[in-house]
UniProtKB/TrEMBL annotation:
InterPro entries associated with the record: PAE/NOTUM
Spans traversing the lipid bilayer: 174-197, 229-249
Primary localisation category: secreted
Domain of life assignment: Eukaryota
One Pfam match: PAE
Compositional bias annotation for Basic and acidic residues: 105-115
Keyword Transmembrane helix belongs to the record: yes
Family recorded in the similarity comment: Belongs to the pectinacetylesterase family.
Keywords assigned: Cell wall, Cell wall biogenesis/degradation, Membrane, Secreted, Transmembrane, Transmembrane helix
An example molecular function term from Gene Ontology annotations: hydrolase activity
Name of this chain's protein: Pectin acetylesterase
Length: 649
């Protein structure tokens, strides 16, 4: 269920009704990388041996209700501990003084079997409602779950932390919300629990029962004010519902869990000098295939720009783009890497591998820089070989079907290594290659300078790339470094190839067509942030860039019988790794075909798959992804369709 932000009353009413139905059905929701995580938790999640954070409360709050007792309303929050009326205050194991239950507390219902079991979740017995505090934790599973039958509402922000894997070794993965889930609005700390009764309020002369807190610090406010309490409870619930509904975030179904896969270091890589820029070992993430896909392999090159001089490479060596020491040890597999049959029907059960990018030259360099004070390893080509040789005995050498793909600089690596990849595999294997946002054009910028050509020329020279470029290409051009551009090497690739690209690729728009050096006064800034803000003359230049891309691909389109194309008119960059653009209810389409469908049709030869979109702004299915910053290594984008931030690797 999506609970989107709406400003008119009709939509708000629909949102609230949907939310109430959700409560009645007790459906758990998992949030994406932004906003709160909404998760339905089982008792085992809170009482299991692997839980983190403070101990949960295990006592009833409030105590058992009598026949005439009114509803109880309790609010718990973090802070200095305060004794509950009727309880002792004794030091806990840490030396802190925490309110502990009085020996006489709770004797009125000593026969409560459920309470004897020590359940740490809300328990209902007949008409009595007991609420228990859930752990206030800093784990990614920070919860906001609601269940009227349990009468528990728990809200907590979920900070950016990483998930630990369930098991170790190659291919370990867990289905969970992605790392970094949370970090959204509602930064208040602690937990909020509303305990209420379905029965009418009645005044009661019965003595109040006591509640107790174990190590978790909490404040307990108990209010019994008849109708006022019922009104306050209703207003509080209504307020929470409204806040959840108007929050600017999407709520994702629990079935759309993210797959998180652990990192594998290539331990023997140093023996052949296959090292990242800083000398650290290269790495990849492998999630094993199963069923009919157990012998099929998909390798995905990670993207992340390039470095073309010593200062930029030294800077890069101290980041995740130049060292595995700074990389996240777990990666989210989504889009073409997903293991969900409904989200990735053609490749979900394959062995899927993500090759981490740490050399700065699209896995193609082979050089070393050492001036006595600084040391840099430009060993992308060796890293490529080391990873392949590490995967061959793990099943890659027996592959029946294989697809080499990549995004951005990784998409360029697909062009550079496609034929070499096929040489490692059995002759009867079906081997094909895919480039996503890797078709970088040799194009003049708006100042008529060859900015990208100069950049690549410096890169090829610094990192020793030329000897690893296609020999047929380098021998046919006056400037061999130009073979780093896919348009010059494409015609020499013999392995079936699929090109996925936007005709208005935002990286190329910002760094090839309108680099900062060509727009020193910032006349294009508004246009870069919002295509709708572009002037007529700027749109004309953008349409010219699209025409040049299509002209460059004309021969491939007409004469490549085994090739595939998907050129849409979205302002985007890297669309295969994002579930929103790969395959979703509202993902981009060309000729009523999604990217996933187009790639699958091409790979399995179901039908010809060469899709070219109409010019901007005709395509209303686009997710226009605009870079948050205009740096050369920017891989975070704002989606104009969803108004959220998406990370692209």
């Amino acid at each position: 269920m999506k609970c989107e932000s709406h400003l008119n009353i009709l939509h708000m009413e629909t949102c609230v009704i949907s939310f109430v139905k959700l409560l009645e059905n007790r459906i758990g929701l998992i949030g994406p990388e932004r906003g709160h995580s909404l998760v339905q938790k089982s008792r085992a999640d809170f009482v299991g041996p692997d839980r983190t954070g403070p101990e949960p409360m295990v006592g009833p709050v409030p105590g058992p209700r009598t026949k005439r007792s009114g509803p109880r309303f309790a609010i718990l929050g973090t802070g200095a501990p305060r004794p509950v009326p009727g309880s002792k205050v004794e030091p806990d194991r840490t030396g802190n003084r925490s309110p502990l239950v009085h020996p006489s507390a709770g004797r009125e219902r000593a026969s409560d079997a459920s309470h004897k079991q020590g359940h740490a979740f809300g328990i209902r017995q007949k008409t009595n409602y007991h609420s228990h505090a859930l752990p206030s934790t800093s784990s990614p599973e920070a919860i906001a779950g609601v269940s009227p039958s349990l009468s528990v509402l728990h809200l907590s922000p979920s900070p950016r932390t990483e998930r630990a894997p369930i098991r170790g070794g190659d291919g370990d993965g867990i289905a969970a919300s992605a790392p970094g889930a949370g970090a959204g609005a509602g930064a208040g700390a602690g937990v909020l629990i509303l305990a209420f009764s379905r029965r009418r309020n009645h005044r009661s002369k019965k003595k109040k029962t006591t509640a107790h807190c174990l190590p978790i610090r909490c404040r307990i406010f108990e209010m019994r004010t008849g109708k006022a309490t019922a009104t306050a409870t209703a207003m509080a619930i209504a307020l929470v519902v409204v806040l959840l509904c108007i929050a600017p975030r999407r709520v994702r179904s629990a079935s759309d869990n993210r797959l998180i896969v652990g990192m594998t270091l290539v331990r023997n890589a140093s023996a052949i000098g296959a090292l990242c820029l800083d000398g650290s070992l290269p790495a990849y993430h492998l999630h094993r295939g199963f069923g009919a896909g157990a012998n099929n392999w998909l390798l995905q090159f990670e993207g992340g720009g390039w470095c073309n001089d010593i200062p930029s490479c030294l800077e890069r060596a101290n980041t995740r783009r130049g060292s595995t020491r700074y990389m996240t040890k777990y990666e989210v597999f989504s889009g073409i890497l997903s293991n969900n049959a409904s989200l990735n029907p053609d490749f979900y059960n394959w062995n899927r591998v993500k090759l981490r990018y740490c050399d700065g030259a699209s896995f193609a360099g082979d050089a070393k820089f050492d001036n006595g004070t600084s040391l840099l390893y430009f060993r992308g080509q060796r890293i490529w070989r080391a990873i392949i040789h590490d995967l061959l005995p793990k099943g890659l050498g027996r592959a029946q079907k294989a697809l080499l793909s990549g995004c951005s600089a990784g998409g360029l690596a697909s062009f550079l290594h496609c034929d070499n990849f096929a040489e490692y595999l059995p002759r009867n294997a079906s081997v094909k290659c895919l480039s996503d946002a890797g078709f970088f054009l040799d194009e003049r910028d708006i100042s008529l300078n060859h900015t990208m050509r100069s950049f690549y020329d410096d890169l090829v020279s610094l990192q020793g790339v030329e000897k690893n470029l296609d020999k047929n290409c380098t021998s046919s051009l006056v400037y061999p470094a130009m073979c780093f551009f896919p348009q010059y090497t494409l015609k020499y690739i013999t392995t079936p190839f699929f090109i996925l690209n936007s005709a208005y690729d935002v990286y190329q728009f910002h760094h090839i067509l309108v680099p900062p050096s060509a727009d020193v006064h910032g006349h294009w800034n508004r246009c870069k942030l919002d295509p709708a803000a572009c002037t007529d003359s700027q749109l004309e230049i953008l349409q010219g860039f699209r025409n040049d891309m299509l002209a460059t691909l004309r021969m491939f389109y007409q004469y490549s019988g085994r090739g595939g194309l998907f050129i849409n008119s979205c302002f985007a960059h890297c669309q295969s790794e994002l579930q929103e653009t790969w395959l979703a209810v509202d993902s981009p389409k060309v000729n009523n075909k999604t990217i996933s469908e187009a790639v699958g049709d091409w790979y399995y030869s179901r039908r010809v798959s060469k899709e070219i979109d109409c010019p901007y702004p005709c395509d209303k299915t686009c997710h226009n992804l605009i870079p948050v910053s205009d740096t050369q290594d920017s891989h975070k984008f704002i989606s104009q369709k969803r108004y959220d931030i998406l990370s692209v690797h």
